[in-house]
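Sanity check

After download, print the first record. It should look like this:
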Amino acid sequence: MAGVPTRTRRRELTFSTDEKRDLAIAWIALGVAFAIFIFLHMAGGTASVGGIFVLSMVTVGVGFILHELAHKVAAVRFGQVAEFRADYGMLFLAIMSAIIGFIFAAPGAVHHRGRITLAENGLIALAGPAVNLALAAVFLPLVFVPIVFVEQIGRFGVFINVFLATFNMIPFGPLDGKTVFDWSKPVFLVVFAPCLLLTYLVFTRIGFGL
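Expected structure tokens:
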């Protein structure tokens, strides 16, 4: 999720100690949340808890870290000062909601500041979900590999990245979709409509027989 901006010269891509800490904490919390959700609500109680946790940590790590990195790279590209900050309350909510049966995946945001146009702000917000859609396409072929562990990585990777893309494209509050919608409604529709279709296909066609 991209934060609200607060044009400067081109900046280098750097990570502070606090940012690295927040990324690590958010990664672990989201990994736990997705593992809980999949084990309780999708695996039918037959899968290994440890196996689900490992698969979740790996695939969430790729999807979440690259999502936030995409926001940061885009922001820096437009001359912004950008840094990820975790939202600990939302991380707790993600874990609690996973137990109930839904994941509220808003772990924090890349906050950026500097002069910026509406279009540039929209592109920064769009970068994260776009990366998740690309990652889902990368993981998809693994679903058809006749090796159980590889197939499961593919299923987890597709599910998590499609979920992250779709959830973040919801045009509400601080989510990326609201920023994209405010910038360009046609662009929003071109991205969000396929996200909804992919979410439907993931749950009804690909499945998760873990």
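If your output differs, re-run the checksum step. Summary of this record's structure: The mean pLDDT is 89.
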